[in-house]
Amino acid sequence: MNLPGFTGQLNHKNTGMSSGKKLLLMGRSGSGKSSMRSIIFSNYSAFDTRRLGATIDVEHSNLRFLNNMTLNLWDCGGQDVFMDNFLNKTDDSSNDNGSANNIFRKCEVLIHVFDVESKEVAKDINTFKRVLENLSKFSPNVKIFILIHKIDLVQSNKRQELFQLMYNNLKNIAFNEYGFKISGFATSIWDESLYKAWSSIVCSLIPNVAVYEHHLAKLIQIIDAREIILFEKTTFLVISSMNKSKSNSINNDAPLSNSLIQPVDNLDPKRFEKISNIVKTYKQSVNKIRSNFRNLILHGKNSSIYLDILTSNIYIMVIMENKMGKDDNYEIDNENMLTEDIKIARHLFEKIENKTVN
Amino acid sequence: MDKSIISNHNCETDSNATVLLMGLRRSGKSSICKVVFHNTQPLDTLYLESTTKPTTENFKSLIDLAVIELPGQLNLFEPALYDYEKIFASIGALVYVIDSQDEYLSALQNLGVIIKYAVSVNPKIRIEVLIHKIDGLSEDFRLDTQRDIMQRVGDDLLDYGLEGVQISFYLTSIFDHSIYEAFSRIVQKLIYELPALENLLDLLMQYSNFDKVFLFDINSKIYVATDSSPVDIQNYEVCAEFIDVSIDLDGLYETNNEDNRKKPTYSENTYDENRNVPEEVDNSQIYRPTKCISRLENGTMLYLHQMIRGLALVAVSRLENDDEITSISVIDHNVAIFKKSLEKMWEQAKLR
């Protein structure tokens, strides 16, 4: 399998830089950058983030993600002193000693956080512009995500309007002046919106999403499930998902335009993030009895849900339709068959994972 | 004359299951009600207004529980706005809330007066004292406060000549699970069938290899019964969270047909009324009870099985790895038998 993202990673290794994808997390002081990082990658609860202090300069964290991927998260302190330092150092001294600590070099992703309550919007935008300017100079292929954060502080009926306003504004700036296309999310640490944003960010870095999706489409037809979702193990971010209508379109070789396909049964569009949120809370609470979560089988009123380990880095969640009115024996056989199917699928997905390493 | 007898009789029948919540103003009574029975987030209770008239929460579970909350700023012996004698005669338990972060001497004085009155009206009344808002106190100060309060209440009762009155004390806070624990114990005392239930759960535990088993009310996370082994608060918390997980996950994938409209809104008080709809259909075996199993890395298994009347059985079990499928089948079978006996017990209770 020839994967474009993979060769890029090799180059990093050759140049002697730390391998992996470099993510910059920027934004003004107090906008919630470190809180986000702690919730997604360090299992903090939203309540715990009150204890976090200000980030000094840059905090690096290396995160292994899906076995073969390393995320280098650079959490940049947001006080004016630090920001000026980042921005000016790169401008002037990139020729001599600057090249080693130039933080804008070889970036794959910029995540810029905007505090929705900020009083100095003009200054925030100005900083954002300067960051973009540096990036267009040093890493022009960077992917840019903006997060309008702390959206829970806005009245719920005004959130969408406010977000659109800010997002369109920033989008125009980024595209017209620097030629960057950006994606934006409204986020809050108090609900599941944070997971949605980070899930899209991380998915944009996974090289073989299409492979996963292709195999999931096959799997869903074999199992005859309503929906299958893949999660990364430690962060519980959604990697890939597949439901019945989507799998049909893939197998008919129709153009893969997800937005056009309406799911047959209009399920909650936020369900992926909600699942991430629910399961992660559960994982934390299980830690109280000094253990870790392994799997979960739920026979509910509406559907049967199987959540199990697929590979060493992936959890799989299969949602089966409840066969109403069928007798019990059928259901029991069904459960065993499904676990067997997942076992077989496990080998396949392990192979996909390992292939990208070598 | 006839009328009063009838109304008295009515009071008599549900007297077992009414809880009266009292305390000085701002001691946190309404917050407790909101958090326990309405699933309100503890932080949101900051914005509650002060209660001006007695409010009654009806709460259907294994027993039909009613919680009456009295406004705190009322002087009990003002020319009667309310018929205190009737209220006190009809309740099963009096819960008095003391704010432990505030100066509590006046609260204790008030409590003494109330106990004296309550016992004179209804000698069988159970008196429960919540030493509330302990989240703000340090660990060793909590015990000091409890000891101090117990001492003073005891002295007060001696002065009134009421040595024989049994009072239970609980340290509670709405920011952790202690308030649920306290309410669980209070509610349990009001369940007539409790010894039989505990006995059943003990048997179930013995034959199913459970470490701990709770009978939960799904809506409020109060456990109406547990086996006779000591309650580990951490086990309780995990079990309560486990109920949330299974209900939330199931709720995300509701089927899109007509019974959808009757879908119980788990967060609201109307939950129990709606709950009865699928329950009746349950007998015709269209709806199977919700069941959820989760395994943990250290071999522990969490097991949830829906029971009658909005109850769920949640158990913590340690399985041997070699024969998982059979042992789960055995558990399923045992739990089904337990459910049948619960149904029978409920039938009998209605006749009583």
TrEMBL record, chain A:
<dbReference type="InterPro" id="IPR006762">
    <property type="entry name" value="Gtr1_RagA"/>
</dbReference>
<dbReference type="GO" id="GO:0000329">
    <property type="term" value="C:fungal-type vacuole membrane"/>
</dbReference>
<dbReference type="GO" id="GO:0003924">
    <property type="term" value="F:GTPase activity"/>
</dbReference>
<dbReference type="GO" id="GO:0010507">
    <property type="term" value="P:negative regulation of autophagy"/>
</dbReference>
<dbReference type="GO" id="GO:1990131">
    <property type="term" value="C:Gtr1-Gtr2 GTPase complex"/>
</dbReference>
<dbReference type="GO" id="GO:0005634">
    <property type="term" value="C:nucleus"/>
</dbReference>
<dbReference type="Pfam" id="PF04670">
    <property type="entry name" value="Gtr1_RagA"/>
</dbReference>
<comment type="subunit">
    <text>Component of the GSE complex.</text>
</comment>
<comment type="similarity">
    <text>Belongs to the GTR/RAG GTP-binding protein family.</text>
</comment>
<keyword id="KW-0547">Nucleotide-binding</keyword>
<comment type="function">
    <text>GTPase involved in activation of the TORC1 signaling pathway, which promotes growth and represses autophagy in nutrient-rich conditions.</text>
</comment>
<dbReference type="GO" id="GO:0005525">
    <property type="term" value="F:GTP binding"/>
</dbReference>
<keyword id="KW-0342">GTP-binding</keyword>
<dbReference type="GO" id="GO:1904263">
    <property type="term" value="P:positive regulation of TORC1 signaling"/>
</dbReference>
<dbReference type="GO" id="GO:0009267">
    <property type="term" value="P:cellular response to starvation"/>
</dbReference>
<protein>
    <recommendedName>
        <fullName>GTP-binding protein</fullName>
    </recommendedName>
</protein>
<dbReference type="InterPro" id="IPR027417">
    <property type="entry name" value="P-loop_NTPase"/>
</dbReference>
UniProtKB/TrEMBL annotation, chain B:
<dbReference type="Pfam" id="PF04670">
    <property type="entry name" value="Gtr1_RagA"/>
</dbReference>
<dbReference type="GO" id="GO:0031902">
    <property type="term" value="C:late endosome membrane"/>
</dbReference>
<dbReference type="GO" id="GO:0032456">
    <property type="term" value="P:endocytic recycling"/>
</dbReference>
<comment type="subunit">
    <text>Component of the GSE complex.</text>
</comment>
<keyword id="KW-0547">Nucleotide-binding</keyword>
<comment type="function">
    <text>GTPase involved in activation of the TORC1 signaling pathway, which promotes growth and represses autophagy in nutrient-rich conditions.</text>
</comment>
<dbReference type="GO" id="GO:1903778">
    <property type="term" value="P:protein localization to vacuolar membrane"/>
</dbReference>
<dbReference type="InterPro" id="IPR027417">
    <property type="entry name" value="P-loop_NTPase"/>
</dbReference>
<protein>
    <recommendedName>
        <fullName>GTP-binding protein</fullName>
    </recommendedName>
</protein>
<dbReference type="GO" id="GO:0010507">
    <property type="term" value="P:negative regulation of autophagy"/>
</dbReference>
<dbReference type="GO" id="GO:0000329">
    <property type="term" value="C:fungal-type vacuole membrane"/>
</dbReference>
<dbReference type="InterPro" id="IPR039400">
    <property type="entry name" value="RagC/D"/>
</dbReference>
<keyword id="KW-0342">GTP-binding</keyword>
<dbReference type="GO" id="GO:0005634">
    <property type="term" value="C:nucleus"/>
</dbReference>
<dbReference type="GO" id="GO:0071230">
    <property type="term" value="P:cellular response to amino acid stimulus"/>
</dbReference>
<dbReference type="GO" id="GO:0045944">
    <property type="term" value="P:positive regulation of transcription by RNA polymerase II"/>
</dbReference>
<dbReference type="GO" id="GO:0071986">
    <property type="term" value="C:Ragulator complex"/>
</dbReference>
<dbReference type="GO" id="GO:0016237">
    <property type="term" value="P:microautophagy"/>
</dbReference>
<comment type="similarity">
    <text>Belongs to the GTR/RAG GTP-binding protein family.</text>
</comment>
<dbReference type="GO" id="GO:0005525">
    <property type="term" value="F:GTP binding"/>
</dbReference>
<dbReference type="GO" id="GO:0034599">
    <property type="term" value="P:cellular response to oxidative stress"/>
</dbReference>
<dbReference type="InterPro" id="IPR006762">
    <property type="entry name" value="Gtr1_RagA"/>
</dbReference>
